[in-house]
Amino acid sequence: MKSYQYRAGYLLFALLIVTALVLSACEWTPTPPAEQSTSALNLPEQSQTEAPAGQPLDPPTTQQPAQPTSQPEQVGPDSFPTGYNPLTGQPVSDPALLDLPAVLVSITNFPPSARPQAGLSYAPWVFELYIAEGMTRFLATFYGDFPQRGPELKGSCAVRSEPFEQTDTLLGNRVWLDKNGNGLQDPDEPGLGGVCVNLYDAATGSLVADTSTDLNGYYGFNVSQGGGYVLEFVKPDGLLFTSANAGNDQRDSDVDPSTGRTAAFTVTQDDQSWDAGFLAPAGTSLAEVSGNQAGAADVGPVRSGRLPYVYIRDAFQNSCLIYASATEQIRAQLRGCAMVFGNDGGDINSAMLDVTRLEKIAEENKRPSDNFNYTGNLFSEQPLAQGAPADEIQVYYSFLNQSQWKYDAASGEYLRYEDLADGSGNFRPALDRLNGQQLAYSNVIVLYAAHTVINPYIIDIRLGSGEKGKAVVFRDGQKYDVTWTTVSGNYEKSTGLRRPIRFLDANGNPFALKPGQSWVHLVTPATTVSELTPGIWKLRFYAPAGAK
């Protein structure tokens, strides 16, 4: 909900005139009505049916009162509000899950038939590491929330497939599925792609621009400061608008359910607080609306363990490591708490971890005597100074293993794109097969560490306790040079316990990551991160000597 100025109507004006005449003997001058911007519109009534896209609007008469926000701008590094995940700096849907230790799952990236993988969009941290022959593998860290299968609902417009590029004042934010019907975006509620969004001029009622939401539900417009506007959201078939103005302005819906439109407003700065929520009609599930009955949620494909997993597991005190198999040479060092095997049909991608089993493993791995603390990193919503523009990161591990990160100003995240592993140079959005959403991360981190080749297919990485090195963090469309460290601080020294890898600025202070998920590229010291053209960077991985 937004703050506005109201224009006194003609009735009020007439009343003031009469009052002035009655009190003419007194030296009293009525205060003139507050000046209102040209953003006021009279939105015609409309039922819960699809709004006619692009139709001119009549001038409105109402606007919304102000609604406060309550999201902290900065959390950590050592203390977090109750219910906040110290690996993301964001609230979780079920705070009780923070009492369970992290579960780390080895997920394959090759062969390419493993894609899209399942569950990566739910992992607070994903580590990508080189495993030989130009291939990489992912170690996904699950903590605070468990993966869920989504209904994969979409609107009636084409899904926006390219990142939003900001060229003027930014207006926009998110369309989401309000699963519990409370009118607020909760951490486990997905975005809704392909929803048509129309922008109207408040003074004339004419259509200014139109767009659609991306796979994660985000949209954006470039607008002029001082302009008055109205937003219209076209309701997908089978869904209803959720209730409007339920609370926190960054999380609630701003759409009148009877019209599909917002009240009029004036843009004075970047404004990413205009959201629209949808829900299924009473007595109908989202799965029934989509026609896709929700099946079992799986994570994977799960593949073999790798030696560097040892250090990452140990950095997450009391965490549980899950993989499909391991070579005899490293099996004893991995000490996994569970293994996942595929079927006997010879499908290399068939080893999938059922989420119910994932939850049970986490619960069983929580012992009363255990203690863990995953704090240590600072998170701040506020963009940082002294960065270098970084709209795109091209990642080159090998000719058949390339990816891209593109900054999306509408969501404030980097969207992941994957190549087709065929040498064509073509890329497609990297998706999560559980929910059909594109992988999006607030922080893309390049972490330099020494790689030691044990044999051509076993590569060690120095990530143990007491290590440190250089790193690059991409956040908010900017690049920053930082330091990573596992050197013991006061907490580690006083408790004897470990904490996850931490990031420091040039002065040795905690570097502020952006709240949200982080993707970590583990690379060799020889790897380069260079600027090709302004804002376009390339990560060129160089394999350690002796590796396949």
Structural commentary:
The strands form eight sheets. Strands 4, 5, 6, 16, 17, 20, 26, 29, 30, 31 and 33 form an eleven-stranded mixed beta sheet that branches. Strands 21, 22, 23, 24, 25, 34 and 35 form a seven-stranded mixed beta sheet that branches. This protein has a domain at 84-147 and 299-540: 3-Layer(bba) Sandwich (YerB-like fold). The relative contact order is 0.16. It contains six helices and 35 strands.
Radius of gyration based on Cα positions: 26 Å
- The CATH H-level homologous superfamily of the domain at 84-147 and 299-540: YerB-like
Looking at the structure, the CATH topology of the domain at 84-147 and 299-540 is YerB-like fold
Secondary structure: number of strands: 35
CATH class of the domain at 84-147 and 299-540: Alpha Beta
Distance between the termini: 57 Å
Low-confidence stretches: 3-51, 59-66
* Class by alpha and beta content: mainly beta
CATH architectural name of the domain at 84-147 and 299-540: 3-Layer(bba) Sandwich
Largest sheet: 11 strands, mixed
Q: Per the principal axes of the C-alpha atoms, what is the gross shape?
A: globular
What proportion strand?
Answer: 25-35%
How many alpha or pi helices?
Answer: 6
Please estimate the helix content.
under 10%
Mean pLDDT: 87
Please give a handful of descriptors for the protein shown:
seven-stranded mixed beta sheet, single chain, 9% helix, 548 residues, mainly beta, disordered N terminus, globular, eleven-stranded mixed beta sheet, YerB-like fold, 30% strand
